[in-house]
Write a structure and sequence with these properties.
alpha/beta; Adenylosuccinate Synthetase, Chain A, domain 1; 10-stranded mixed beta sheet; binds inosinic acid; binds magnesium ion
């Protein structure tokens, strides 16, 4: 096995953080290629819970940690995150100089833009992600490498002022940020290639999920970066041949934080049950996640876009506490049925899910072996999605993982 790219197949929160920590032992480095501190990657070891926002989830395995060019970097959040981790984590960290920075002004703008949307906000994490990537596209962003010189913040400051955000603290923020990244900035793409040439392997860690991808997700209810596997090489600056094998991660039900269409959303008390058993609250914002049944239409789309052949399924233990199991096999819209997510993208708000309930997972108990009910789910998903299930996660603790 060479490099591996871990990507989310739903709306994020599939349990990628746990799997990256679990798999990291077999790799030399873990690299982030997209998103920013909107991510909340949870790793549980024994009784201790760690939430990563910018630091790759391989930190607790002592691996080399790489933050690629595609990441929107908030230096102040990074400083806070590093202060909670052992000093040696910082020694392992390399940040690409091309990372565009997220400033406090981007966060203010995030709030202003949400207010502007009135009664239909996107429900962003408020971490300044949209504005930071917009500044990059406008060619006004400061990048990590700029901090090492004396960046000219004239043009971005002018724009923020015009948009109603006061940028007078800009120079102070630049100085503060410079202290955070000093000694950590380099060329991540080149480092990934060097590791490969020396016979090493890198694990690529996506944040968010395929359905939140800026281009391929449920636009405009998406994040502002690319979450799909084809962005791994672009987000890091490596040849596509180095992106390795994709590993898709999916939860055995669906959740979504923030607004936007969600065809299999559960509107009765079952959603409260799943939310409380599965602790479905945003790791970054603490918001209760919306909960829904498994959506095979959306998953097929995500599998196809990412070219995934191997998947990991997570949170099977949660379904042990739920009487029913449902999987959406097609969408009904204006009298016709379709299994094609793409065809439904324009009217996801209006489609009605068509379910089947081939079995229940209620009462399944997990040990080192997969219980027979879970085997049924594995077979069912392999047949429906045309993939192989290689990992099953049945609890947040690192050890609650079964390799198949
Ligand atoms: P933003 O990325 O903060 O701009 O938020 C845009 C949308 O993506 C909102 O619906 C967020 O709730 C969602 N989102 C962003 N990051 C994550 C994540 O890490 N997990 C789940 N949802 C996310
Ligand atoms: Mg998360």
């Amino acid at each position: 096995m060479g490099n591996v790219s871990v990507v989310g197949l739903q709306w994020g929160d599939e349990g990628k953080g746990k799997l990256v920590d679990y798999l990291a032992g077999q790799f030399d480095a873990v690299a982030r290629f997209n998103g920013g501190s909107n991510a909340g990657h949870t790793v549980v070891i024994g009784e201790k819970k760690h939430t990563f926002h910018l630091v790759p989830s391989g930190a607790l395995k002592g691996k080399e940690l790489l933050i690629g060019a595609g990441v929107a970097l908030d230096p102040i959040v990074l400083r806070e995150e590093l202060s909670l981790l052992p000093d040696k984590v910082k020694e392992k960290l390399l940040i690409d100089g091309r990372c565009s920075l997220v400033s406090p002004f981007d966060k203010e703008l995030d709030v202003v833009l949400e207010q502007m949307r009135g009664s239909s906000p996107l429900g962003t994490t408020g971490r300044g992600i949209g504005p930071a990537y917009a500044m990059r596209a406008l060619r006004l962003a400061l990048r990590a490498s700029d901090l090492l010189n004396n960046p000219d913040s004239g043009a971005p400051s002018q724009l923020y002022s015009r948009l109603g955000v006061d940028p007078t603290r800009f120079p102070a923020w630049v100085n503060e940020s410079k202290r955070v990244v000093l000694g950590l900035v380099g060329d991540v793409g080149s480092r990934v290639v060097d590791i490969g040439q020396a016979g090493g392997k890198v694990l690529f860690e996506a944040s968010q999920g395929t359905l939140l991808d800026l281009l391929h997700g449920s636009y405009p209810y998406v994040t502002s970066s690319h979450t799909v596997v084809s962005y791994v090489p672009a987000g890091l600056g490596i040849p596509s041949s180095e992106a390795g094998e994709p590993l898709g991660v999916m939860k055995c039900y669906t959740t979504r934080v923030g607004s936007g269409p969600f065809p299999t959303e559960i509107m009765d008390s079952t959603s409260d049950n799943i939310r409380s058993v599965g602790n479905e609250y945003g790791a970054t914002t603490g918001r209760p996640r919306r909960v829904g049944w498994l959506d095979l239409v959306a998953l097929k789309y995500a599998v196809r876009i990412n070219g995934v052949k191997k998947i990991a399924i997570t949170k099977l233990d949660v379904l042990s506490e739920v009487k029913e199991f449902r999987a959406c096999v097609s969408y009904r819209h204006m009298g016709s049925e379709t299994g094609d997510f793409q065809r439904s993208l324009g009217h996801l708000h209006e489609v009605e899910p068509v379910y089947e309930s081939p079995f229940t997972m209620h009462g399944a108990k997990y040990d080192r072996e997969l219980p027979s009910q879970a085997k049924k789910l594995v077979d069912y998903l392999e047949a429906a999605l045309g993939v192989r299930v290689s990992l099953v996660s049945h609890g947040e603790e690192r050890s609650r993982t079964i390799e198949l």
